[in-house]
Amino acid sequence: MDKLRLLFQHFQASSESVMNGVCLLLAAGTVKLYASLDVHCPCLARYNAAYGLGLLLAPPLALFLCGLLANRQSVLMVEEWRRPAGRRQKDPGMIRYMCSSVLQRALAAPLVWILLALLDGKCLVCAFSCSVDPEKFLDFANMTSSQVQLFLAKVPCKEDELVRDSPARKAVSRYLRCLSQAMGWTITLLLIILAFLARCLRPCFDQTVFLQHRYWSNYVDLEQKLFDETCCEHARDLAHRCVLHFFQSMQSEMRARGLRQPADHPPAQPRDLLEPPDRDSRAHLHAVSSREQVDRLLSTWCSSKPPLGLAGPAGHYGGGLSHRAPTAAPDPREPQYTEV
Q1: Tally of helices (H runs) and strands (E runs) in the chain
Q2: Number of other residues whose CB lies within 10 A of the CB of residue 56
Q3: pTM for the whole thing?
Q4: Residues 220, 80: contact at Cβ < 8 Å?
Q5: Which is more confidently placed, 176 or 252?
Q6: What is the DSSP string of 233-277?
Q7: How far apart are CA 284 and CA 166, in angstroms?
Q8: What is the rounded distance in angstroms from the CA atom of residue 213 to the CA atom of residue 197?
Q9: Is 146 within 8 Å of 138 (Cβ atoms)?
Q10: 311 phi and psi, to 5 degrees?
Q11: Which of 165, 176, 158, 66 is nearest to 110 (CA)?
Q12: Which tens digit of pLDDT belongs to each residue from 112-146?
């Protein structure tokens, strides 16, 4: 399970190449899934349309949701959109860039499913067999309206005795398949033209804003990952300190009660057993004395993230990577922490 979790976290990375690989895997899985699908139309006038359209639209919706879940930036986009401004301004352009990136990758697998279903034609034949105009076919001239509706509902089921050897069934089925394939190839051609135009016209526009939005979207992703890792390290150090304090208290209580250990069993040294040699790495815990302080610190991070700038010794914002200064000074009433 740990290996699967690490693999899933690796696929959730911010690298665009990894996310493109995930999209290709979903698309390949979609092709394999549709190839193993066997369409069984109910051949009933009331249920043909529901079954055909459901088979055409329900799996793409599920694949779209899977694409959103597999993309880490979908959660970051919602968090960035909903968070309070605090000391860091929100960038609508970055949110739009993340939304466009997420939708492009999430729509790949659903479009593959829809195109495969249209080019195959079985779903459309099942869904619209009862909606065909009988006047377009001469074989229905000698049938009543009820017989025509019953016959059209049985068109997708070529094994049925009513329509097995009827040339009218082949004509209706061929007509609907042609319409379905025409729609599939038209959508494919439109997507290719749109991709071609986007590829050709993209260099004609200014790339500065695009690069900025792409940079800061990657920054938000990396910042969240580093924050999670830092929280784990901080929680591990705090747990180590609490356990060490517990054993020190137990040792003091044992000495106060006058309990002695056997002579052949030397007294344990909890501090030496539990605390590593390097104690300077836990200097950030000296300011933590209660759970409320940690909760207040985490609440401050969520409600008022620090500005995108690092203050140097002289109070200047250096580094050359920040494009905006802090919007407000930190509240002097809140406890200041040098390290999290």
Answers
A1: 12, 2
A2: 19
A3: 0.72
A4: yes
A5: 176
A6: HHHHHHHHHHHHHHHHHHHHHHHHHT----TTSPPP-HHHHHS-S
A7: 83
A8: 22
A9: no
A10: -75, 125
A11: 66
A12: 999 999 999 999 999 998 888 888 887 777 788 88
- Percentage of the chain modeled with pLDDT above 70: 76
Per DSSP (E only), the strands in the chain are: 310-311, 317-318
What are the tens digits of pLDDT across the range 271-304?
Answer: 444 444 454 545 666 666 788 888 888 888 888 8
Distance (Å, whole) CA 216 – CA 222: 10
Task: Judge contact between 118 and 152, C-beta under 8 A.
Answer: no
Measured in residues, the chain has a length of 340
Mean pLDDT across the stretch 264-274? 48
**3-class DSSP assignment, residue 15:** coil
Closest CA to 13 of 245, 279, 289, 222: 222
239, two tokens? 């747990």
Which tokens belong to 278? 């390097």
